[in-house]
Amino acid sequence: MPGDDDLPAFLARDLIARIGLDPNRSAVPLADLCGALGIAGAPHERRARRHAALAAGMRRIADDDGHPCWQLRVDLVPLWLTTLDAGAVDPALRPALLMHQRDAASILWQSFRPQGFAADDTLVGPREAQTPAEQAYVAALALANLARQQMLIERQIDARMIDGNRLTTEHLADLGEAETLARAVRRVATIAAQRSRRNEYGGVAAGLYRQFGLASYRRMPPARLREALEWLERWAGDLLGEPEPPPDI
To answer: Are the beta carbons of 17 and 11 closer than 8 angstroms?
Structure first.
């Protein structure tokens, strides 16, 4: 684990940097993580194995010395850190763990809050008092959240596609508001991509965020949903009415 003197001030307070994960490894021994944090390994290995989400990413393999040990997939390390009691870790690392847990709570709230709820959380202040950096942070998380929800909804829609990529009347009746909006987003992004020869999902998400403050497909007010759908339909119509761009040379 690198010492504080080896890290810039910001990274010295970042727990992932303090632990010193090897970027070339896909999994890390839980005993090593516990040792870096100053906590007993065996009880935390047992706790992790009882946690369904963590257990799915654990495997028992031999370490570099040939001894069997439980390893955790690296993408689950941030989640595992949120399950720890800050009071139990090395006092020198306690502020970094608390900062990590506050950061995790902020990102989760920004990603899962229903549309219409305030963006306020532990890391940013009220909207009218946010600095430009805080505004950029909130906007970037909103766009990432829209892309994530779009991806998950499209997977659900595609799983129901039958008969030559057509949805049955029963399936269409089951589409919720989020799926209706996602289908409209995909239509515009696909039409735009055919013309620009680029991935246009980011541009459509950015447009929804700028025009409607849209940060989530969850629980959209009906009036706002209609406005967004009408706006997307006009965008698609404008694209279809434009002449084809010249081919790339």
So the answer is: yes
